[in-house]
Design goal:
The complex is a heterodimer.
Chain A lengths: L6 H4 L2 H39 L7 H15 L9
Helix pairs in contact in A: 2-3
Chain B lengths: L1 H8 L13 H9 L19 H52 L7 H7 L2 H13 L3 H7 L2 H12 L31 H10 L11 H13 L14 E6 L15 H13 L9 E6 L1 H5 L10 E10 L2 E6 L25 E5 L2 E7 L3 H9 L1 H24 L20 H11 L5
Parallel strand pairs in B: 1-2
Antiparallel strand pairs in B: 2-3, 3-4, 5-6
Helix pairs in contact in B: 2-3, 9-14
The chains are: A mainly alpha, B alpha+beta.
Chain lengths: 82, 429
């Protein structure tokens, strides 16, 4: 049920700004968790796509898997320039 | 060949019902081997005449498998790259949000700053604070001043638009080492001057009433509800001063034009109803004296105010604003319905008190109903009688011309604004 938040419960302008930012951070971190899970799934699919056939990874796949693993392992790791 | 057969038979492409034929047969089924150019037989290999043909079949099979897995692999690589990009973007956004949160005004964590100090230094600071423990310092430690400074800075965002209005409170923070020409004052006073920047130009520091006035202005920021959690009011101030080079009387604030100018001014400096809870105009003494000997110009104008009433927010505009309405206490008026009080009108030297309701719709309805107007007039007359009695009983007040108390030096009736805001915005005065 939608309830109008009264004035005296809303807090000041700055408190509302802070609350908005904290909400955004919360949502973003949730999405980040989901994206990391998706990345793990994609990595598993990629490595199995060759290994299931008894083939080795190609060089590019090998590098990509290593890079993805590093991205997952180090949260501060940023993308290298293309 | 046998080593390859296990992995090949596991592929779904080549599974076919029926007895499992030989590898060459299956491959020729799927690959249309008739189009494969057969490598020319080399007579050097005599013992195995089909060897070249079998080599060609193996080659085609490997190419086919490689191409198929290449497509799958490329798709998977695209998915992985997209996921990496998404993770990267989300991390960047999260970092940006953290940065924005930490750079918000008023989000200064004093405990963190204190913890970065050395232990010995922190203990010395604690000893100093404990030696001079005042409410001001306690509030400073709680970060109250930071929020208040933020509110003040937000209202001084843009340059002035109306020449008759000088700067609102605090265009710039006082930098360290700036010397004020005021002489020695106490610590809290210097805090006031530093916070309210340009406000201090209008204040004579040697006048204790004015200094007390500044304290009252600061108190108005601190009005909070006692029933709910502590909420800070953001009260924007501006001083209406006399324009330079004008010798004649200035326009009274009761005129619509000047009120509209004040509204434009406030919205121009970023003082909006979303950010602030009230907008207060102060008259400088020069403005009030500019009308001549009959000083019936108000000293403080509460332009608008967002008040709480029955748990809802109401935007109140004051048609004629007398901040000194509350010269007598609100609760002194017997039979005053608090729901119907809230707008006070000073008109023709008579004091109206508690005429309108706080809601606009009900306001219009009340205006339409003559009975309500009559009741309000009665209440107002009672209030005026009460105030006159107070004025007669008390000492003679200088500058009291029309029966209203007009402060001679400084904005002493800002206390009434404080009381009014305290009533309207939720504290039980």
């Amino acid at each position: 049920m939608i309830r109008a938040v009264p004035f005296y419960e809303r807090g000041s302008y700055w408190e509302q700004r802070q609350a908005d930012l904290r909400d955004d951070i919360h949502i973003t971190e949730h999405r980040l968790l989901q994206a990391e899970g998706r990345l793990r799934d994609a990595m598993a699919t990629l490595s199995q796509s060759r290994l299931a056939e008894g083939l080795n990874h190609s060089h590019r796949t090998h590098r990509l898997l290593g890079f993805a693993a590093r991205v997952l392992a180090e949260p501060s790791y940023t993308l290298p320039p293309p | 060949m046998n080593s390859n057969s296990s992995s090949i038979s596991s592929l779904p492409v080549y599974t076919s019902p029926g007895p499992a034929p030989g590898l060459a047969h299956r491959v020729s089924e799927s690959l249309a081997l008739s189009e494969i150019p057969i490598v020319q037989e080399r007579p050097a290999v005599r013992g195995d005449r089909n060897r070249n043909r079998r080599v060609a079949v193996d080659h085609q099979l490997w190419m086919h498998l490689g191409m198929q897995s290449d497509a799958t692999e490329r798709q998977c690589m695209d998915v992985v790259e997209a996921a990496i990009q998404e993770v990267h973007e989300l991390r960047t956004r999260r970092d940006d949000l953290h940065q924005a949160l930490s750079s918000l005004w008023g989000d200064i964590d004093i405990d963190t700053e204190r913890s970065s100090l050395g232990t010995a230094l922190a203990s010395r600071v604690d000893a100093q604070i404990a030696s001079q423990r005042t409410p001001e310092r306690t509030r400073m430690l709680q970060g109250v001043y930071d929020k208040r400074t933020a509110a003040v800075f937000a209202e001084a965002a843009l340059p002035l638009t109306f020449p008759a209005m000088s700067a609102s409170g605090g265009t710039l923070p006082m930098s360290h080492g700036t010397q004020w020409a005021f002489g020695e004052r106490s610590g809290p006073y210097h805090g006031i001057v530093a916070l309210y920047g340009d406000f201090a130009r209008h204040i004579d520091p040697h006048c204790p009433q004015m200094t007390a006035q500044m304290a009252g202005i600061l108190d108005a920021q601190r009005i909070m509800s006692r029933k709910r959690g502590a909420k800070f009011l953001h009260v924007g101030h501006a001083i209406l001063s006399k324009p330079k080079g004008v010798d004649g009387p200035v326009v009274p604030f009761e005129f619509d034009a000047i009120k509209r100018q004040a509204d434009y001014f406030f919205s121009g400096i970023g003082l909006t109803r979303g950010c602030h809870d009230a907008a207060v105009f102060l008259h400088s003494d020069a403005t009030r004296r500019a009308n001549g000997q009959v000083k019936n110009e108000e000293a403080v104008h509460l332009l608008w105010c967002r008040a709480r009433h029955d748990g809802m927010v109401h935007d109140i505009r004051f048609p004629w604003v007398a901040a000194r309405v509350a010269q007598g206490r609100y609760d002194n008026y017997a039979g005053m319905d608090p729901e119907r009080m809230g707008v006070s009108i000073s008109y023709n030297g008579a004091m109206y008190l508690g005429i309108e309701t706080l809601t606009r719709g009900r306001l219009r309805a009340q205006y339409r109903d003559p009975a309500n107007v009559r009741a309000a007039e009665t209440v107002a007359l009672q209030g005026a009688e009460h105030r006159d009695r107070v004025a007669l009983d008390g000492p003679p007040i200088p500058g009291d011309v029309t029966g209203l108390w007009i402060p001679k030096n400084g904005y002493r009736d800002y206390d009434d604004v404080v009381r009014l805001l305290g009533y309207l915005c939720g504290s039980d005065t």
